[in-house]
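Lab notebook page, bench 4
Experiment: in silico fold of construct C2
Operator: M.H.
Input chain length: 185 residues
Purpose: comparison with the prior construct
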Amino acid sequence: MKSFSFIFQYLLNPRKIGAVLPSSNYLAEKMVGSIDFHNAKYIVELGPGIGVFTDKIIENRNQHTVVMLIENNKEFCTLLKEEYKNEKNLIIINDSAEEIDKYTKDFNIPYIDYVVSGLPFASLPKSSSSAILIKTKKLLRKNVIFITFQYTLLKKGLIGHYFKQINIKREYRNIPLAYVFSCSN
């Protein structure tokens, strides 16, 4: 059901969804692999889609860790709210990731320990990508990580403009091949 919903939304909004198929479990493992779940108090996921990375975050997080999901697609947001309706310390927002600062303020989140992003920076307008990256960087605690994946290395320069260090890992067991960017200052 979730995969069908993902494919259907891709057909309706290919530039906003960014992929024909949901991310693989292998990619999800790589995306959350550098998160220190024991010490993380606030985790934000941008563009969670149908929740492939969210599942891993929820599965590994400390019970007191606050997780905020910001999803622009209304159908995906409805799916996420149903899927995680019994989860405590989970905030699900239906809005643009550009509003990350508004929602962290509204929900009294003083800083973010980790941001996990499923946003398709390659197909987002540069102004939107820049706004998201600027606001995210301001909210992240020092020496913590912004984690995103892309299907191409084309946006490495854009992301590198905001983060000094980018560690890139490939995930071959995803369709298509994906690059995981772990970014810090």
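Observations: DSSP finds eight helices and seven strands in the chain. The beta strands are 42-46, 66-71, 90-94, 112-117, 140-150, 165-171, 178-184.
Next step: discuss at group meeting.
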